[in-house]
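So, can you check these tokens?
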Amino acid sequence: MKLSVVGLMILRDKVLLVQRGARVHRHKGEIGLPGGAVEPWETEAEALRREIFEEIGVDIVEEIPIFFGETRTSNSLFRIRAYAIFFGKPPKLKPDGVEVVKIHEVLLSEVLKAPVRWEQLGDRSVPVIRFSKCTVWGATGRLLLKFREWYSGKGVQLSFGEVAPVESQRNGPVEGRIERETGGNSEG
């Protein structure tokens, strides 16, 4: 299973969601969080910084991403680790036009309170969350539900300095760390 990292970017009272382009390999047109695969030669922090810069032109070197949750996708075989990134001043956004074709600003209050509808997809049930400007489902929906728990104080609050990478050539795998951090609440 390949490791991926994503960033939930919070700009005061808004959250940024991205719409993937029609020419990407996976999840064409879906709404999600900026990020992508961690390459074998990089850490999670390096991958998150690189992916966000490539996709929306924002360098997060000054921000401190905070781990809030993890999920997996069975269809693309990725383990996805999510980090909240808070901005005091809104960054200049520039979608790359291929991986990301549009950025949706959703009110933080909507992310925290929008109703969740569960739909059957094959043999599993996936969350669908409809916001006023867009709809998310699947892995992104699960991560936003984890963000709600974390934001309300029920989840783990760890920054990059406190979170050991799960996989990378530099650091190697760390077995059992997810269960310790999340109290066994990781989805799989």
The first strand starts at residue 2 and ends at 11. The two ends are 11 Å apart (CA to CA).
